[in-house]
Structure formats: structure tokens, C-alpha cells
Amino acid sequence: MIVAEGLRKCFGRVTALDGVSIRVAPGERVALLGHNGAGKSTLMKLLGGHLLPGEGSVHIAGASVADAPDAARRALGYVPEEPECWGYLSARETLEYVVAVRGGGDIEAALALIGLGADADRLVREYSQGMRRKVAIAAALVANPPALVFDEALNGLDPPSTLAIAEELRRRADAGTAVLVSTHVIDLVPRIATRVVVLRAGRVELDSPLDALGAGGLEGVFGG
Fold this sequence. Notes:
Elements: E1 2-11, E2 14-24, E3 29-34, H1 40-48, E4 55-60, E5 63-64, H2 69-74, E6 76-79, H3 91-102, H4 107-114, H5 129-141, E7 147-151, H6 159-174, E8 178-182, H7 189-192, E9 195-200, E10 203-209, H8 217-221
């Protein structure tokens, strides 16, 4: 469902990704981990179509991000690390627009998930950063796309919202959605993923089921 093959991306003399390949099948929940500068955000931007690779390819639900970007975007729910929302719309109006563009979706269920309550009808420009992130998450989920890519999307959320969204990702994966979430929060990983991919210096250092990491677990991977 989410397929990246041989991705290489350079920014001037800096190689951000050097031959990265990753696959997330329908029904999988994968956490993308790595130190600052490992290449996580570059990879996520390539998956979301915000960047194009120097080498390699990205396909979402069989559609090439480079050659068939509209089809790839229709299959993807994407939350960037720093989401931007339309400040002149309310959360409800934002979701109404997304549903109109995508051709369907359950607005009330998406609003209930993020728990904005009466604030759903306030203008987004009046929201806190955490509330804006909730709107971006709801926009990614509302049309029930077959692939989800969340770049540090749970950062800054209140604990009840974090747990609710983690549970929703599990539920969607159980229904066949491919889920890829990057995070720096190790303690969150068991709630959002059953498999981990670790990047280091632009390469895949580890790709393993979570329950196969041994006694040291994730702490052992990062030298804890």
C-alpha cells in the first residue's frame, strides 16, 4: 500500500536519504524512528508528495507519487510535522471542504474523534497549536483513505487525544489501512505500531516487528 524503493535525496552536499526502501502493507502499523537528522522528515515529505526523490520511487496504493500525483493523494491521509490550516475556516468548515474534494467522509465522526466540541465552529485562527494539529489529523482521517502517513502528528496533543487517536489508528489498521507514523516518543510506539523502522544517517538501520526486538526493546536499539 505504501511502497518506497531506493530513495535517494540530497540537499546540496548533504545526503538526507541514501537508498531507503520501506513497505507498509494493508493492515500494518509501522513506527518510523531515528535521531534528529536521520532523514525521517525527508522520507515523510517524499511519501506525501511534498518532495520528489533524486533517485527511487514512491507508490501509494499502486499510484506513483511522481507520475500520478492526484491518484496517490486520493489514497493518502497525510499529516505533516508542521500542519497548516486555513485560519478563516472553522474545523467543521475545513472538514466539509475536504469531504467535498475527496468525495465523501463522516464529518461528525472525525470531529468526535478529535474532541473539539463547541470549538469545532470557531475559526481555526483562534485555535492553539494542539487544536490545529487535531484539525489536520481529522482532515487526514475523514475520508477514510487506505494509507495514512503521520509525521510527528501526535506531538503536542493532550494525553486523552493521543490515546484516542492511537486507538483509531489501530482500529483502521485492523480494517485494512496501511499506517506509518514517525515519532520521537519511544513510550508511544507500542500503542501505535507493531513494527518499527529505524533510520540512521539516511539509511535503514533496523526494520523489525516490535515483539522481535528482544529484552532490550527499543531502549536497547537507541543505547538506553
